[in-house]
Amino acid sequence: MSNNILGGNFWMRAFGAPSVTIEKYSVTLADWASGTSFANPNSHVLSAATRIIGVEVGVGSGWAGAFKGAADNVNVSFGTAGQGVNANFEVGAVVPEPATWAMMILGFGAAGAVLRRRRFAVAA
Fold it and tell me: Per-domain residue ranges for the chain?
């Protein structure tokens, strides 16, 4: 599945001059590109000269909904073919915890003791 992010909602957090912090939720790239001004008079807008220097994927503290999904094999690119960054999330093999190993060994030992005791009881 691919998703074009131009119409998606984004969270903008920017730090500017002293005491200027901008936090906006549900802002689209179209809002920024059109020069929409936000409540803060020093709010930022995107222009043709804007450079995106970082992309973070996640659910921030401003998200009011419930997360009901998963992401795998995420690719982020900026228009140049073959220049994307790909992140593939694979689940590693399950390795038992040390306590699990201890309980398993104890269980095998107990089962062996029961079998041995039965063998001696039948022989007597």
Answer: 1-92, 95-124
